[in-house]
Design a protein that fits this description.
The chain has ten helices and 20 strands. The protein is an alpha+beta fold. It has two domains: about 5-235, 3-Layer(aba) Sandwich (Rossmann fold), CATH 3.40.50.300; about 245-375, OB fold (Dihydrolipoamide Acetyltransferase, E2P). It has a six-stranded mixed beta sheet with strand order 6-7-8-3-9-10, sandwiched between helices. Helix 2 (about 95-105) packs across helix 3 (about 110-120) and helix 2 packs parallel to helix 4. The radius of gyration is 25 Å and the shape is elongated.
Length: about 375
């Protein structure tokens, strides 16, 4: 395997539309990197440029120590798994798996050995004599995965491979793919993976690191825990997490007792956060995750009061939707702690955990609550 590096990579289409804005990204040898973002963020375009299916307008892409800008896809040492599986419909599974090796004129005994090994790893031995039309979605996706795996490429590229599967099968395939990646790593055959998805659950559960993209820009690259707990900006904060982070307009005052005022209500902020902000004040975006703001008795200090407009029973927890001023907030409460007398239209007080509050610059979106955090730890 090999590492993958993008340096100042751009993509400009006819008419001057710039889809990718000079991005820099390094995927380490054997790393599982996920590109995630909303539709139109250029994550698939980036993947296709790595594969050689899209030409780059500027910058440099290297795999290992080789610059691959001018190499055709077949010479880049990559294998790609597509959303639509792209199996040859007239070939049985066995031939679909081995076709790439036959094109490379590998010895027949190696082809047979590799086919048996890969089908065993993916548990598709019983499917080898079936045509693609005789496979379920999950089976077809495993065959597509096997066709990539059998090539022993430098880099695996996945373009939303699970989006056509139902929710239960997607969950199963997530586990299967990550287990395969870990197994290859444990066997000394680490697989470098770039995986594109719009599904943040896939991103958070599968990636060693995650690259969050927006409008052709990289917003943050980090491991799942860091993205969740220390989002670099308001976009990442609002995109990562289920339900998404509560975000609302507020005013920060640090003269005297540091406070946040939102919808005409004022709460004090945690001492540690106040120290990091170094007397910064003015309009901000207030952020708190639904799991970190909870209902409290009326009159509790440092709580925000609003009206319940919806309740969602999720089994193990309840999502309480509360309107505070002109902003909708969600509080996630474990079912055993939920007050079942609460109903739509009731007034409720929500208190954020002070240590979990995020504040974002109103203009740039930068997470100013992370300022000086490392120097204080």
């Amino acid at each position: 395997m090999a590492d993958l590096q993008l340096k100042s990579v751009e993509k400009v289409y006819g008419g001057g539309f710039k889809a990718v804005h000079g991005i820099d990204l390094k995927v380490e040898d054997g790393e599982f990197m996920v590109l995630v973002g909303p539709s139109g963020c250029a994550k698939s375009t980036t993947l296709r440029m790595i594969a050689g299916l899209e030409t780059i307008t500027g910058g440099e892409i290297s795999i290992g120590d080789q610059v691959v800008n001018d190499l055709v896809p077949g010479k880049r040492g990559i294998a790609m798994v597509f959303q639509n599986y792209a199996l040859y419909p007239h070939m049985k599974v066995r031939r679909n798996l081995s076709f790439g090796l036959k094109l490379k004129k590998e010895p027949q005994d190696k082809i047979e050995r590799s086919t048996q090994e890969v089908s065993g790893i993916l548990e598709i031995e019983q499917l080898l004599d079936r045509l693609p039309k005789q496979l379920s979605g999950g089976q077809a996706q495993r065959v597509a995965l096997g066709r990539a795996l059998i090539k022993s490429p430098e880099v695996f590229l996945f373009d939303e491979p699970l989006s056509n599967l139902d929710a239960k099968l997607r969950a199963s395939m997530r586990v299967r793919i990550t287990d395969l990646h870990k197994r290859l790593r444990d066997e000394g055959r680490p697989a470098t993976v770039v995986y594109v998805t719009h599904d943040q659950v896939e991103a958070m559960t599968m990636g060693d690191r995650i690259c969050v993209m927006k409008d052709g820009h990289i917003m943050q690259v980090a491991d799942p825990v860091t993205l969740y707990e220390r989002p670099a900006n308001a976009f990442v904060a609002g995109f990562i997490g289920m339900p998404e982070m509560n975000l609302g307009s507020a005013v920060l005052t640090t003269d005297g007792v540091p406070t946040i005022t939102m919808a005409g209500q004022t709460i004090t902020i945690a001492e540690g956060l106040a120290e990091r902000l170094q007397m910064r004040e003015g309009p901000v975006t207030f952020g708190i995750r639904p799991q970190h703001i909870e209902p409290v008795p009326p009159g509790t200090p440092d709580a925000l009061v609003g009206k319940v407009h919806n309740l969602e029973f999720m089994g193990h927890e309840v999502n309480i939707h509360v309107t505070i001023g002109d902003t909708d907030f969600i509080s996630v409460v474990p079912t055993e702690r939920f007050d079942h007398s609460l109903k739509r239209g009731d007034e409720v007080a929500l208190r954020p955990s002070g240590a979990r509050v995020h504040l974002f610059d109103k203009d740039s979106g930068e997470n100013i609550s992370l300022a000086n955090l490392d120097t204080q730890n």
